[in-house]
């Protein structure tokens, strides 16, 4: 049995809970057919639980372990180890899905194929230059389905690529457009700092889901259908919620501005719906929530 | 809602600083699949509100979880022009319906004495048989061969058998192809191969042609077959399969026919094709990733992650969760990847771990084989 290394007084209880779970689920997990014994399974689960920092109590650990997609996790780890039978199953189950998902993400045949091919190479554990590395499947933790994880990794890779190509292309585009010596346009959108402060405070007071809703709809221009699908509710629910959040927010911000010394008329003027196009400001630059270079999630190359 | 946000508010929204650390793909996947515990859900939601890149990722991943786009199916060389065919069919059906309604109105106006009897005849609930049932659409063995060639895994070729047909009542002896279980050791490969094929399975010509003899009967005046004709060709366990309404007369058969259309979506949702020709999610409250749905008569069985097994005996109106009790006193928790029922009582359920459970009393008790 692999040692279960958790610091603290709960070590024994956690180890016992983990062993108990492994004993119960070993047969159902499909680990046997991939030549993964019970001890190895315990090691995998120990690592996953440790990474997710969900080992406060034995009960928590049991709940967490029960929530894992165990069969997918075992399959991914078996693939990462190069088990042929596991790869056969993986290919049969996910090959088509992978390419379909890549197409839906990239919306273009060649880009989709390139995206899926590159991920395949990483899943096999070989990078673009043929250098052997750890299979990307090694990082799958089983918290969501393997199919969903593959979609997320594809999407992440696509966003990474898009962001890097966007930076590279921007200068070329500017040169092509003959705007290389274009002077920066002055930002004339000087808002009252009291209005900005009131908006910031009230925005922070919103529920996380409400803020996500606003950002997705007003910043990203997502459709109600897209947001509804992500949140698992009907479009009309999203529509109503948006209406409620924005109207409530307007009222509270106005009230806060008046409390900070602005007259009702000044507050109303500050709250006017200003069409940013009229202000000749760069909308994208104003709204963009740029992520710092290199901050996007990357797994550490951990070899065991 | 469609109006712009006030500029101070929008600026504040855009200024929200993203965290340095982004959630892992695992966590984002769990978020998309709504499996995160409450506190973690809030943390991730909060991060997403601030991080445009992670929002992009989850929306792309969520969008990619939709059904396979028809144009992609065509690119994969697996699709017949189903949508165009269905579109054309829907127009044809609408035209026929208009003609029939007009005809009935004209008939009612000029021949009032005969109308009453005709209305009485048409007023029978769908499924009520007043004439002898039409003969089976084709020779069962022929259909079984077609179905076998279309759905079975390439190597294992599970035996497809059929039960006998009684001309007196199909409900008692449903002619349902039975997908025999693969060998225990090969269950995963067999099923996944099957799933892979089934996902891209296009409505094969044999399906449409098989019902050609029935088209003449399927007028509004004809007696509607009490059992969905699709059942003759529909495998009783189709993991992740989309079972399209390929019967050309389906719109005329009404809700009693289309109610048999079930599928498991790519993201593990159980879905039902309603009378409006739209897929509706069923058992949405259950935190189960479904893998397989099986239909036998009015009995619908659906299975998925964590040993979740659901049964409806009334075509999906009401559901009950079925626990497969193990000898140790617990319940089966392996993912259910195959459900095969010969009739309402006898069936076999297979888990991803290879466990094979059988029942002969409609799921009340289970035996590990």
How would you portray this structure in words?
The complex is a heterodimer of chains A (304) and B (369). Chain A is mainly alpha-helical and 304 residues long. Chain A has 3 domains: 11-68; 82-161, Orthogonal Bundle (Rna Polymerase Sigma Factor, Chain: A), CATH 1.10.1740; 193-287, Winged helix-like DNA-binding domain superfamily/Winged helix DNA-binding domain (Arc Repressor Mutant, subunit A, Orthogonal Bundle), CATH 1.10.10.10. Chain A contains 13 helices and no strands. The longest helix of chain A has 31 residues, at 146-176. Chain A is elongated and about 75 Å long. Chain B is built from 13 helices and 13 strands. Chain B has helices spanning 7-15, 25-32, 38-50, 52-64, 70-75, 82-110, 112-122, 140-151, 187-200, 205-210, 212-215, 250-253, 255-258; strands at 160-161, 178-179, 262-264, 270-273, 279-282, 290-296, 299-304, 309-312, 320-321, 336-341, 347-351, 356-359, 367-368. Chain B is flat, with a radius of gyration of 24 Å. The N and C termini of chain B lie far apart (59 Å). Chains A and B meet through helix 1, helix 5, helix 7, helix 8 and helix 9 of A and helix 1, helix 2, helix 3, helix 4 and helix 9 of B.
Would you spell out the secondary-structure blueprint of this structure?
The complex is a heterodimer of chains A (304) and B (369).
Chain A: H1 11-29, H2 38-52, H3 58-67, H4 70-80, H5 84-106, H6 109-124, H7 146-176, H8 193-204, H9 208-219, H10 224-231, H11 235-259, H12 264-270, H13 283-287
Chain B: H1 7-15, H2 25-32, H3 38-50, H4 52-64, H5 70-75, H6 82-110, H7 112-122, H8 140-151, E1 160-161, E2 178-179, H9 187-200, H10 205-210, H11 212-215, H12 250-253, H13 255-258, E3 262-264, E4 270-273, E5 279-282, E6 290-296, E7 299-304, E8 309-312, E9 320-321, E10 336-341, E11 347-351, E12 356-359, E13 367-368
Antiparallel strand pairs in B: 1-2, 3-4, 4-5, 6-7, 7-8, 8-9, 10-11, 11-12, 12-13
Helix pairs in contact in B: 2-4, 3-4, 6-7
